[in-house]
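Please, structure for the following, as C-alpha cells.
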Amino acid sequence: MKEPLLWIEDEDIRAALKDMQTYLDITEEDLKKIFQLALEHAKRRLKKRILVKDVMTKNVIAVKKDTKVRELIEILTKNRISGIPVVDEENRVIGIVSEADLLFATKTGKIRGLREFLKRLIGEEYSTLATPLSGDLKVEDIMTSPVITASPDMDIEEASKILSEKKIKRLPVVDENGKLIGIITRHDLVSAIGYEA
C-alpha cells in the first residue's frame, strides 16, 4: 500500500495552494519535502507511543456489589492490592472500592469493628476468621460510583494525567461495552516509563 505522501500528486498541491487563496513563497518541491519530513516525524511519534493495553494488568480481580465488606478486606489483603473494580453480572464496571473507601466508611461509622477485624486478619490464618464485621455491610454500601475508566487504546500519558488530576491510584480498563478487560495503576505507568527510558 502506498504511503500517504505518495498519494499526493503535483496537481493536488497546486489545487491546495489555490484553495488557500493566498500567496506562499514556497515551491512545490519544498512543500513535498515538508510533507515527507512531517510524515517521518509522525511515524517516529506513533512508534514511541505506548497504549494502556500494552501495560495494563489483564487478569483483574473484581467483586460484585453484594460482596460482603469482610470478604472484600480478605481479598485485598490476601492479594496485596489496595483497590478493586466492582462489576455487574455482565462484567460491566459499576463501581470501584479502595482502602480509602474502607477508611472513610470506618470514620463515618458505617463500619464498626474494622480495627479489631484487621488485627485478626493480619495476625491469624484466613481459615480462623470467624468474627464478622458489624452490620453485614456490602461493597455497594461503600464503593465509589460512577467510575472513571480508561480505554485500551488510550495513550499512557493521558491515563497518567487522569490519575494525577483526579488523585486516584487506578483506572479500570473497559471495552466499548463498558466490560472490564484490565486495570492500569500508577505502578504500571511508572514501570512503563522506566522501561521506555
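The longest helix spans residues 28-48. The chain is about 45% helix and 10% strand.
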